[in-house]
Structure formats: C-alpha cells, structure tokens
Amino acid sequence: MKKLILTVLAAGMTTVSFSQKAFILSRQTKRGFLAASVGGSVPVGRFSSMSAADEQAGMAQHGLSLNASAGYKLIGSIGLMVRGEQHRNGLSTNAILGDIVRNDADVWVAQTGKYTITSVMAGPYIAVPMGLFSVDARLLAGRAQAILPATAQSGNFGNLSMGVETTGGTSMATSWGGGLTLRYRAGRSIAFHVNADYTHAQFEFTNLTTKVWDGNGRVQTNIVNATRPVGLVSVSGGLSLLFGNQHRPF
User: Fold this and answer.
1) How many CB atoms lie within 10 A of CB 221?
2) DSSP string of 73-121, one letter each residue
3) Is the alpha carbon torsion for 30, 32, 38, 39 positive or negative?
4) Alpha helices in the chain (DSSP H)
5) Is 26 among the domain residues?
6) How much is the pTM?
7) In whole angstroms, what is the distance from residue 76 CA to residue 109 CA?
8) Which of 37, 54, 149, 197 is the residue whose CA sits 20 to 30 A from 190?
9) Contact 31, 72 (CB under 8 A)
C-alpha cells in the first residue's frame, strides 16, 4: 500500500512538473516568425481617384491582398524582416467611360482586367510583448512590380460606331511602407495575427499603344505613356509559426 501511494505521488509530481514546464515554454519569447495572411486591399490617394480629368488617376477598386513574411530578432525586441505581398484590384469600367462625351441615346461599354501589384520589401521591426499578445511595428522598403490591365471601349455616336483600345503594360519601381501586427499566442509555436499595412510606389508605363477606330474603317494609332502613383492599405489575418527561444530555462 505504501509503495502504491509513493508511486501515485511520484506520478502526480511528474505531471505537475511537466505541466509547469509546458506552461513556461508556451510563454517563452520567440526570436523568429514565419507568417502568411490573406485579406482586403483598399486603394488610397490618386490610385483610388475616379476622375477622368486626372491623367494619373488609378480608378482602382477594392480588391484582394495576399502576403507572407519572416522576421528574426537580433537585439532584444528589435529585428529584421522581409515581406512579400500581392494586391489584385479591379479597374472601374464606369470611371473609364467617364471621359467620353456622348448623348443620352449613345450606348458605350468598357472591358478591362485587374491591377496586380507585387512587392518584396525588407527592414527593421520592433516587437512589444503583452502577455499572450504582442504588437509588431515595421518600416520597410524594396521593389515592386505593377501590371497595368489593357482596356477596351466601344459604342456609338449617333449612327457611327467607334472603339478605343489601349494595351496594358508592366513597370518596376521602388516601394516603401509600414505596418502593425497584433499577434495572439495560441500555443508554444503557433499564433494568430491581424495586420494593417500601407504600401506606396510610383510606376511609369511607357510605349502603351492606343488604337481608335470607327465604323467607316478609319483607324488611328498612338503611342502613349502613363504614370500611376499607387497607394494601398491592406487589412489581413492569418497564422504565424514561431521559432527560436529567446531564453532557455531548461
């Protein structure tokens, strides 16, 4: 009986010790993270302008944001990180038709694709722990690529049919931005997070071809350039994988 009691006590102490160790490890500050997120993309500034009178208006609509990031603390709460993000935003067909002067009886339609903005940026970040929560703040810079969608407009002026087609293009530019992450520690190495980020870049598209045609067979082709200042705000959420204990208690 005495041996049984000692065995039960030993097992209980082992369980308590294991639970304490698991509790401590689940709250150990981690040095690095890998994260993936998905959310919404909101154009801001001239990128969201629907003004046909503004040659740099982006006429971009709300869209989708995908991003992945990795970071590692180097000194205390300060570290370096890299972040890749892609935004996909529609181009408003109503705004495209806004610069066409027509009568009420004239019918015009427009077709287009989506902007695709892809950026890879790196920079410093600081992590502020608050129990199971933590807040990261970052400032980043890097390179971005933008794909400008082609557009096509067709309609009529009275009895004369007409159309305008403009090719799309690709441009590279320097990008910069910053953001915040609120992270909740759900386990030893797993966390859920919510991001809010801003990205800015200015793209120059050259040698775009605009073709104007009418129902009488006349065609006019011009080579044009376009400037697009891009400002994007993304709000996203996802999963983080934490690694690298900052302290080793065991």
Assistant:
1) 10
2) EEETTEEEEEEEEEEEEEE-HHHHGGG----TT--EEEEE-EEEEEEEE
3) positive
4) 2-26, 93-96
5) no
6) 0.86
7) 58
8) 197
9) yes
Residue 40 lies in a domain: yes
**How many residues belong to the chain?**
250
Number of structural domains the chain divides into: 1
Q: Which two tokens stand for residue 245?
A: 């204990």
Domain membership of residue 13 (yes or no) is no
Cβ atoms of 70 and 62 within 8 Å: the answer is: no
Alpha-carbon span 4 to 19, nearest angstrom:
22
Q: What is the CATH number of the domain that holds 218?
A: 2.40.160.20
C-alpha 54/C-alpha 32 separation (Å) is 45
Q: In 109-122, which positions are buried (b, 16+ CB within 10 angstroms) versus exposed (e)?
A: ebebebbbbbbebb
Give the number of other Cβ atoms within 10 Å of residue 56's Cβ.
Answer: 14
| Closest to 87 in 3D by CA, of 113, 116, 109, 59 | 116
At residue 5, φ and ψ (nearest 5 deg) are: -65, -45
Could you tell me the residue range of the domain that residue 37 belongs to? 31-245
pLDDT in tens, the chain (250 residues): 555 554 544 445 444 444 444 444 445 689 999 999 999 999 999 999 999 889 999 999 999 999 999 999 999 999 999 999 999 999 999 999 887 777 778 899 999 999 999 999 999 999 999 999 999 999 999 999 999 999 999 999 888 899 999 999 999 999 999 999 999 999 999 999 999 999 999 999 999 999 999 988 899 999 999 999 999 999 999 999 999 885 554 4
Which has the closest alpha carbon to 176: 201, 196, 146, 197? Answer: 201
